[in-house]
Amino acid sequence: MYYSYENVVHTDSIDDSITREAIDGMIQNFGRIPCQLFTEPHPQRQTSEQAAFQIDIQGCPLNIFQNLRHIKVYFVEIISTNDEVLNPIIFISIPKNQIRSFIQQGTPDTLITINTNGVVGNNGWCSYNKSSDNLFTFERDITLQLEKNRLTTIVPFSSSINITSRLFALSHDGKFIFSGGHWDWSLCIYSLTKSKTISSIIHHTDIITCLSLDSTGYILVTGSRDTTCVI
Questions:
Q1: CA distance 124 to 104
Q2: pLDDT tens digits for 138-177?
Q3: Cα(109)–Cα(31) distance, integer angstroms
Q4: Per the domain annotation, does 67 fall within a domain?
Q5: For a Cys-Cys bond, which of 11, 96, 141, 194 suits 121, CB 3.0-4.6 Å?
Q6: CA trace torsion 74, 77, 78, 84 (10° rounding)
Q7: Are residues 54 and 78 part of one domain?
């Protein structure tokens, strides 16, 4: 490759015909590499502010790890700390398709929360609100304030499995919650509009350990401890 660079070697000055022929063959095989590939200077490097502005124009999401100094953590109490047992929230989801009527325009989006006991919260969420000091609006589900009013999935979870977010999926229209991990090996469908479980389907021979909806919201895949999956 050294001989293929421009002006590195002059074959006419080589007396040995065998060497000259070998170098000519190498140049013909690899081609001639010019001394200068680009004639225009490299564009000036952008500042972080200019790069962020360009990304914003293109509609690309910003990398939060490049703006850690501007991130502020907020705390929202879902269930009162006066409760004797606080079960952590393990599933949070916002429906992809927020269906509203004309008179509902401007109202907060739906934000669904589920804790390890299966308590469902149908909260309100608005990611940006100029009138709020927090720059967001969060409306807690009123049923979470009193224990007797809390909505839970009817079928208990199995004690032999860790309850994680992989056991839940929210329909794109925000009307149904799909849950696994139940002791009877079932897939449960919980209606948020009716506040109850409307269907329990069993297709596995062991506990469902994970489930997921596809990007269209029409295909649900469940995986079980029996090493099978159902579409």
A1: 13
A2: 778 777 766 666 666 667 888 898 999 999 999 998 899 9
A3: 62
A4: no
A5: 141
A6: 140
A7: no
Q: Which two tokens stand for residue 29?
A: 């095989």
How is residue 24 annotated by DSSP?
H
- Single-letter residue type at 215: S
Among 25, 42, 62, which residue terminates a domain? Answer: 62
DSSP string, 85-102: SPPPEEEEE--SS----G
| Rounded CA separation 80/145 (Å) | 7
Residues 28 and 130 in one domain: no
Domain membership of residue 190 as a residue range? 72-230
In a domain, 137, yes or no: yes
Domain count, the chain: 2
Collect contacts of 118-122 with beta carbons under 8 A, ≥24 apart. Answer: 118/152, 118/153, 118/156, 118/157, 118/179, 119/79, 119/87, 119/144, 119/150, 119/151, 119/152, 120/150, 120/151, 120/152, 120/153, 120/177, 120/190, 120/192, 121/78, 122/151, 122/192
Which pLDDT score, from 0 to 100, does residue 86 have? 65
The H-or-E segment that residue 21 falls in is helix 17-30
Q: Would you put residue 45 in left (φ > 0), alpha (ψ -120 to 50) or beta?
A: beta
